[in-house]
Write a structure and sequence with these properties.
heterodimer; A: 262 residues; Rossmann fold; 2 domains; two-stranded antiparallel ribbon; 7 helices; B: 382 residues; alpha+beta; Butyryl-Coa Dehydrogenase, subunit A, domain 1; Butyryl-CoA Dehydrogenase, subunit A, domain 3; 3 domains; four-stranded mixed β-sheet
Chain lengths: 262, 382
């Protein structure tokens, strides 16, 4: 069974992120990591391969530094990686990212595609479902259990819904996005780390995928980012001094006259 | 001149850092409090294969170069110094002579299981009357037919009370002092080998340290670890620089752990209406700590690079160990000051770093000995 996993390199949750002066972009501290939800996808793919055989290929779209997350995937145990890197990919939105990924996937042999349910940086949660749409295959989101039925060429998955869970049967090939609870991603053993350190990461650009500049990156995007705004600062806490009865009266006065909430 | 780590080394650092953050950091306080060997963590961690870090891939190791090894030592010590001491003992000092001189049978019996974490290794240098002064070693090894008979008491043995095998420094002729020293392999269960007092230490808790008593311990000829008699000190020289630079890397690890605690506190703790990190005297502390840590890092990794390139570096290794350690001692002290009275409370971590850092003064050579050596090297014969 051949599995493709889509991963994204995102800023480390501890990295300092600030809005640039003109509000058009972000200043991100150069600390990166594999997207939290993608780790479940990589782990699950390796587990399925360990049980059923086949190959796991991890694909990521990003800059040169993205090799780091692909190396991590190798250290965990995947068989192949592919980095989609091209200066023209910059400014991609979910749509143009999914489009480019789907073109790369079309060149591969696959039975199942796994991806994190959303990226921790933009939190959009679009790419997985959009890739499924481009490829014309079914998609189930936010799965917490996956069972492969090789004889029937299908998977049975659990997905969390409000107040319970839904059990869904999906014919293959399909794209599933992974949610916390699916598994516990492994700590890479040293043999994997060594393999990862020595690996060459294959790369493809737009041309190699047969795509023009107009189809990818900012030009191919459907969304234009107008402006970034930092979250509003928490307002100062005002302590009201005095006896409880008096303080309560003052609090009501502030709510009615100053804040005009009541 | 290129001061960067390679992309591969950067990846290794990130991977081991994440492993340490996930596996070791959450257990570090408990290891310190209980002061018991963390067997569960040991089993879990050794499964990853890092204990074979320095040894060839053909026997299941990683064949890591000295720079990569230093990255490992620094990161694991950042997690827990007590645990790191036991791990590094298995990786380096506790197995080196077995790897270098052990017969195939000995390697099969001791080295390979130690690389897998199934056996615990140690090395025994120190005695009650000899530490820096190795020539004063009183543990004796006397040849009796095809056997060696060992007698003596070893002190300050990391992993000692739980070790499955020990590389023991003993003299075959006390009158020869340094030239009478040799290494011997003594395995657990050998009659006459017993474990004496376990030491209660100020820091590095969780690493079990104690005495090893050798009372007419008889071992076969093949347990002599060397090519010829009287070369023990020469053999120590083969890994002395590495041990010293490794201690420097451990100093960096402790300093970083403490520094991070200090940074977090300075950003959050409010006094006089501002986070204390906004005050100049606190900023000055960070300026000094960051600068000296950077200088230590350069010295440690420069010395590691010299080892990697096979260039002489006894002086640089001594400098790296001493400077990184002194920096670490300053950093752990400053961080407890930044934390104010909280730095004095067992509830928080700065006190642990303060205690742990003290061991660096003795491990890898006291600074009195190192300074004397560096001074002599610089001034030359006069």
């Amino acid at each position: 069974m051949n599995i493709i996993v889509l991963v994204k390199q995102v800023p480390d949750p501890e990295a300092i992120v600030e809005v640039k002066g003109d509000g058009k972009g972000l200043e991100v501290e150069q600390k990166f990591t594999m997207n939290f939800f993608d780790e479940f996808a990589v782990e699950e793919a390796i587990r399925i391969r360990e049980k059923n055989g086949g190959k796991v290929k991890v694909i990521s779209l990003g800059g040169a530094k993205t090799t780091e997350v692909l190396r991590k995937a190798i250290a965990m145990g995947v068989d192949e990686t592919l980095l989609l890197e091209d200066p023209n990919f910059e400014g991609s939105d979910g749509y143009s990212t999914a489009f480019v990924l789907s073109k790369a996937i079309e060149k591969s042999d696959y039975d199942l595609i796994l991806a994190g349910k959303q990226a921790l940086d933009d939190d959009a949660g679009e790419v997985g479902p959009m890739v499924a749409q481009f490829l014309g295959i079914p998609h189930v989101g936010e799965i917490t259990r996956l069972e492969v039925k090789t004889d029937d060429n299908m998977v049975v998955v659990d997905k969390v819904i409000e107040g319970g869970k839904e059990v869904v049967k999906v014919p293959l090939p399909a794209l599933l996005t992974t949610q916390k609870g699916l598994n516990e991603p492994r700590v890479p053993p040293i043999t994997g780390v060594m393999k990862a350190m020595k690996s060459q990461i294959p790369k493809m650009d737009a041309k190699a995928l047969g795509l023009s500049e107009e189809q990818v990156g900012e030009k191919g995007a459907k969304i234009k980012i107008e402006r970034y705004l930092p979250p509003p600062k928490r307002r100062e806490v005002k302590m009201i001094e005095g006896e409880p009865q008096e303080a309560a009266k003052e609090a009501v006065r502030i709510l009615m006259e100053v804040e005009r909430i009541l | 001149m290129d001061f960067r780590l390679t992309e591969e080394q950067e990846f290794f650092r990130k991977t081991i850092a994440e492993t340490v953050d996930k596996m070791i950091v959450p257990k570090a306080d408990e290891i310190d409090e209980k002061d018991e060997f963390p067997w569960d963590l040991w089993r879990e961690f050794s499964k990853l294969g890092y204990l074979g870090l320095r040894y060839p891939e053909e026997i299941g190791g990683m064949n890591a170069d000295p720079v990569t090894a230093m990255i490992f030592y620094e990161e694991i010590t950042r997690g827990s110094v007590g645990f790191a001491q036991s791990v590094i003992m298995n990786i380096l000092m506790g197995t080196y002579f077995v790897y270098r001189f052990g017969s195939d049978a000995i390697k099969e019996r001791c080295l390979l299981p130690a690389m897998r974490g199934e056996k615990i290794a140690t090395i025994c240098f120190t005695e009650d009357q000899s530490g820096s002064d190795l020539g004063a070693t009183r543990t004796t090894a006397v040849k009796d037919g095809n056997e060696w008979v060992l007698n003596g008491t070893k002190m300050w043995i990391t992993n000692g009370p739980i070790a499955d095998f020990a590389t023991v420094l003993a003299t075959t002729d006390p009158s020869l002092r340094m030239k009478g020293l040799n290494f011997f392999l003594v395995e657990k269960g050998t009659p006459g080998l017993s474990y004496g007092q376990r030491l209660s230490k100020l820091g590095c808790r969780g690493a079990i340290t104690g005495e090893l008593v050798l009372d007419n311990v008889r071992i076969p000829e093949e347990n002599f670890l060397g090519d010829e008699l009287g070369k023990g000190v020469v053999y120590v020289g083969e890994i002395l620089d590495e041990i010293r630079v490794m201690t420097g890397a451990m100093a960096l690890g402790i300093a970083r752990a403490a520094y991070e605690e200090g940074l977090e506190y300075a950003r959050k703790r409010v006094a006089f209406g501002n986070p204390i990190g906004r005050y100049q005297l606190i900023r000055a502390k960070f300026a000094d700590m960051a600068t000296e840590m950077e200088a230590s890092r350069l010295l440690v990794y420069y010395a590691a690079w010299l080892i990697k390139e096979g260039l002489p570096c006894r002086k640089e290794a001594a400098m790296a160990k001493m400077f990184a350690t002194e920096t670490c001692l300053k950093v752990v002290d400053e961080v407890t000051r930044i934390w104010g009275a909280n730095g004095f409370a067992h509830e928080y971590r700065p006190q642990r770093h303060l205690r742990d850092a003290r061991f660096l003064l003795y491990g890898g050579g006291t600074h009195e000995i190192l300074k004397d050596f560096i001074g002599r090297s610089v001034i030359g014969k006069i």
